[in-house]
Specification:
This protein is of the alpha/beta class. Helices cover 19% and strands 40% of the residues. It is built from four helices and twelve strands. A five-stranded mixed beta sheet has the order 3-2-1-11-12, with helices on one face. A five-stranded mixed beta sheet has the order 4-5-8-10-9, with no helix packed on it. A two-stranded antiparallel sheet has the order 6-7. Helix 2 links the parallel strand 2 and strand 3. The protein is globular. The termini are far apart.
């Protein structure tokens, strides 16, 4: 069983509230637009981190993180990318792969819009944690917490940090 903290679009922002939730997780997953690598370096000092780079990330972030990160967590096939779209509107660059080899959990960021939905056609769960940073059009800073227990994804919780 693993407790996961999922965040995205930090845009160089890290604070004590985010770090409080990092402490409570077994792993932290970042869905891109890290900004300054101080964010991920700080998280990595506390908990294991998996991530991808986003469209605002510089060459240092692109050397540290991949564009796509696909891995197994317990019995769950996970795919994280920054610009992935969502069920019915997947990014054209990944749509064929989703259709032919769907993961069980598909995660992206970029939109700054928190969205969790099940894709019945591809039998996958899509998650976008919204944005936890202070840059962008979003009004409320958000993250997601959940548990992966074997091949089950459960105990999903929206974390609202408040106005930016």
């Amino acid at each position: 069983m693993k407790k996961i903290l999922l965040l995205s679009d930090t845009h160089s922002h890290i604070d004590d509230t985010i770090l409080k939730y990092v402490e409570q997780a077994d792993e932290v997953w970042h869905a891109g637009d890290v900004g300054d690598l101080v964010v991920t370096d700080t998280i990595k000092k506390i908990k294991p981190l998996r991530g991808v780079y986003g469209n605002i990330d510089d060459d240092k972030a692109r050397m540290e993180f991949p564009l796509h990160n696909r891995f197994m967590c317990e019995g769950v096939d996970v795919w994280i990318t920054h610009i992935g779209g969502y069920p019915g509107k997947y990014n054209p660059s990944i749509k064929a792969e989703i259709m032919t080899n769907p993961p069980k959990l598909f995660i992206c960021g970029h939109s700054h819009i928190l969205k969790v939905m099940f894709d019945k056609k591809n039998n996958l769960l899509h998650m976008n944690p919204g944005a936890v940073g202070k840059s962008g059009f979003h009004q409320v800073r958000t993250m997601l917490r959940f548990v992966i227990d074997g091949d089950k994804i459960k105990d999903l919780e929206i974390v609202e940090i408040g106005k930016k």
